[in-house]
Design goal:
alpha/beta; seven-stranded mixed β-sheet; binds pyridoxal-5'-phosphate
């Protein structure tokens, strides 16, 4: 098919929403390391996990072998409200850059939560409801996950308790109101409502919180309140599984026009959007059918992949959660207050960590002023106001397209545009006023986080 035939937006039909999620772990010869019980150092059993997570989600978390897991009809029906999401050919950006590269992006911001997080929120809420639970607890940093979960819980009639990182709670009051409009109970974290919150406040008076603190509080409430379980918006295997709808749809849309990407780029906070976007492509790569260059982009202020250690670590600051083997900066690492709240987690998905460790993908870290430059350029030519998180992927997509301009190579680039930035106008304001700064942790800063890594029997 000739190049000009490719439309600006490739839409799939409603019936083309995937009917199964794809589990990339099934095609990995080296599986991601299991979660460990922090007390015993032994792999967490399904029974132990079921005190924290819903039963079906535990099964998905532990399933390293089933390649395709059917999406229940109720979840597909919910997906129909905002999916399939468009795959957009960035003709205007290509023209502005003067690049021979062909750029595509999968846009996940077309729902009220403003991000891809709804894909997993509805799945997790559905399984909680199916188990007959009363409600769920969670944490939120920037607010996208909390919003997505509030929407899913409102739809299914579940209670939703959100611990919101205090700095975001104060900086983004409108995010909080969106969540409350959907019926969620929102508490700034660390709070005095939990034992772990009180302990953190005692040790760090005046702290503005972190995702790690908020996770500790949410887990404490879930495990001490009958009829509640905890849900997490990223990092876990189950979340990557749900997010595979992004990649499956993107691949189906590209396949319609016989397009194969050379480079696939996504921002990486806990790894869920990137894991979801690359899943079916990574599957082909793992099976030796095709090869792709896959790039994870993280903030220079929170460089888990590029400067972290591949080790077992706590997922939370209060050290009450299971241990995950991942690229980590240490659970005590609190990144400087950069403006991409969704990319401020100290660790990274175990699945992506293993793939990165085994050389199946690359990672790069970018500074936030360069990220906002890319965001502004993108907004002006493509029209969409991108989330700061998503703009990390835009930055690297632009850089790769500019390299093609130098070499004359007509590479095809696919990146994930995870969301919109309407709630991030304080960050845009700083950028517009020339007040944005970059903070890159020194090796000494990082050492502090590494010192707090737990000693696990049998681990170096
Ligand atoms: C949460 C979030 C991210 C980062 O999380 P991942 O789990 O790494 O995908 C990226 N973009 C947006 C818009 C987000 O809300």
């Amino acid at each position: 098919m000739s190049e000009t035939k490719i439309p600006y937006k490739i839409y799939l039909d409603e019936s083309e929403i995937p009917d199964s999620w794809y589990n990339v772990r099934a095609d990995m010869s080296v599986k991601p390391a299991p979660l460990l019980n922090p007390g015993t150092g032994a792999p967490l059993t399904a029974e132990e996990m079921s005190g924290i997570f819903c039963e079906e989600l535990v099964a998905q978390e532990l399933d390293n072998d089933t390649a395709y897991i059917p999406i229940p009809q109720e979840i597909r029906d919910f997906y129909k409200m905002y999916r399939p999401s468009p795959l957009i050919r960035a003709y205007c950006l290509e023209k502005a850059l003067g690049t021979p590269a062909k750029i595509y992006y999968k846009f996940e911001g077309n729902n009220t939560s403003g991000s891809h997080k709804l894909n997993s929120a509805i799945a997790q809420a559905y399984y909680a409801k199916k188990q007959g639970l009363k409600g769920v607890t969670t944490e939120t940093g920037a607010g996208q996950w909390g919003t997505a979960l509030s929407m899913a819980c409102a739809y299914l009639g579940l209670d939703c308790k959100v611990f919101m990182v205090k700095v975001s709670y104060e900086q983004k009051p409108f995010r909080r109101e969106v969540m409350r409009t959907y019926g969620a109970d929102v508490t700034p974290s660390p709070s005095t409502t939990t034992a772990v919150g009180r302990k953190i406040l005692e040790e760090h008076p005046g702290t503005t919180g972190s995702l790690g603190c908020a996770i500790s509080e949410a887990v404490e409430v879930a495990t001490s309140t009958p009829g509640y379980r905890y849900v997490l918006g990223s990092v876990l295997n189950q979340v990557l599984l749900h997010q595979s709808v992004i990649g499956l749809e993107a691949k189906a849309a590209l396949d319609k026009y016989g397009v194969t990407p050379d480079i696939i780029i996504g921002c990486a906070g806990g790894g869920s959007n990137l894991g979801g976007l690359i899943s079916p492509f990574m599957g082909e790569k793992l099976r030796g059918e095709k090869d792709y260059r896959i790039i994870a982009v993280e903030p220079a202020s929170c460089p888990s992949f590029t400067r972290g250690k591949f080790a077992y670590d706590f997922c939370d600051t209060g050290k009450i959660c299971p241990l995950a083997k991942m690229y980590t900066l240490g659970s005590g690492f609190i990144p400087s207050p950069n403006h991409a709240g969704g990319l401020r987690f100290h660790g990274m998905s175990s699945t992506l960590s293993q793939l990165y460790h085994d050389g199946y993908m690359e990672a790069t870290a970018v500074e936030q002023t360069a990220v906002f430059e890319a965001a502004e350029q993108f907004a002006r030519v493509e029209g969409i106001l991108p989330a700061p998180e998503s703009s990390h992927a835009i930055r690297v997509a632009i850089d790769e397209a500019l390299k093609c301009k130098e070499t004359g190579e007509e590479k095809t680039i696919l990146f994930g545009l995870t969301g919109t930035g309407y709630f991030d106008m304080v960050a845009y304001q700083k950028y517009n006023d020339g007040l944005m700064s970059d903070y890159i942790p020194t090796d000494a800063d990082l050492e502090i986080g590494f010192k707090g890594l737990p000693v696990v029997p049998g681990q170096a």
